[in-house]
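Appendix B, example 12.
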Amino acid sequence: MPSKQANHPRQRCVDHPHRPSVFWTRALTCWPKSRSVFWFLAVWLAASFSLSPVARANSFDPVPALHSPSQTPQTLVLFNRPIAELRSSLGGLDAEERVARAQRRFADLSAAERAGPVTTASFSHGGEQGVSLLVGERPIFSLMPQDLDPEDHLSLNGAAERAQRRLGLALAAQRAQGDPAVVLQGLGVSLAIAVAAGLFLMLALRLHQRLDAAARAHSGTLEIGARAYLRLLWLRLTASGVWLLLAGLWFAAALGVLNAFPWTQPWAASMGEFVRDLGGWTLAGITGAIPGLLTIALVLLIARAVQEALAMFLSHVQSGRLRVPFIHPETTGATRRLLNVLVWGTALAVAYPYLPGAESAAFKGVSVLFGLMITLGSTGLVSQLMGGLVVVYSRSLKRGDFVAINGVEGVVSEVGALAVKIINMRNEEITLPNSVITSSAIHNYSKLAGEQGTLVSTQVTIGYDTPWRQVHALLTTAALAAPGVRHQPAPFVYQRGLNDFYVTYELFAHIDRPLERVAILSALHAGIQDEFNRYGVQIMSPNFYEQPAQPVVVPPGQWFAAPARATDVESPTPKQS
């Protein structure tokens, strides 16, 4: 029972039994003039503690759980500090109820009782020895042999001494928290930390702005080279390091503020312990990853050496210095790419288990995601890649060939892994997917040029009243006069059909420049018209149902009828390569 002297207002502020959770209410009642200061402290502590959810997670909850199974270890927390773990039932109370009763007893201590010493007393219960912990003459809780943790390797007396020491520290902190001088000192420390943190924040922001401006100015210049790239990288890393330094500063400020008040000192200890554990874990992870990283470096060096050896071998094959039955010079580029993919894919598969965190759930999740993406999106891609391999290794075309594919005629400018690009006579670039290439007929006018050149052909239809020998002579004469047509092998003519109204003749000639096939054919057609007109032989196109009285020819005197001029070039001349 409290004494009569406790009715005095000032005496109630000192002697009234209280709990830690109502400390600030009592303080505001006893020191009304300091309410604004206490509100500032409450806001500052809330902001500081909100910066560390880990500290809240690691801190001890002074409120026991609503229900827990009997014999489950329950932590006794007094004034925000762990005192002991209770595991057994005693006097009909389970561990949870024993913790709740000890917290009530601790909260009901008067100021005079809290100033008393913390002692221990042995007792016997059910034939077993126990130890009670008392504050002054008031018992708080008891320890039984069943409460001991086997992993601690402590005797009952040793556990009691540890609990006695922790209980004494909790009482000392509670008394210090009730001291106005300690509160004012904590407020002063918090204010000084806040001012210092604000100044450092301003300096860090100015430094970051200067670094960011320097990085932008450097990236906007036209300077290139390794030194320029390294300087830009250094500026970016330094700017990022400012933010990391600022984060560390605010963490240290939060620790300082929490450590300035006895009530929040356990939170500061938990945060500091978390950072120490994190740093130790990081250092241990780095140290443990060194052998794996060395293995990865060795694998990459071997893969690089194999790649360079294969590149040297294929370059000799491409130049003709080496001849390998299953590798052709025109397929060495694709073979090099395939072998590079094989070498580096194998190196990645070998090095993957040695990557730090390769066995973590994050790596496994990313692997599953990439596998799903490749599975869903690789159908068309794989078909195009396989088509590209067919095009390359069938050697049906290469860069620079004059081809006709699926109605597209032009020069091959690129043979890629997914498509082939062709430039036509109108200087248009046309892209044909490899699936289209493999499903279409490829007319390659350059592949078989060789020493005799590439054949070009054209057809004319001449009436039966013209001797076929004369037609052969006219066609070969026109071919020999056309620029770009080879004299050896000589042009030749075949009679392809004896039709109802005319005979079909086809002229074949060899050319050296297959890329100029269209221009040479144009010049050849012009020469054929001139030769036939010169000798009065009419070309039976269009068809005639009745023979005209006069031959349908253009006399030489009309070859340059207006607007043509005699100085004009008689036939287009192909470009000289």
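Residues 74-177 form one domain. The first strand starts at residue 74 and ends at 78.
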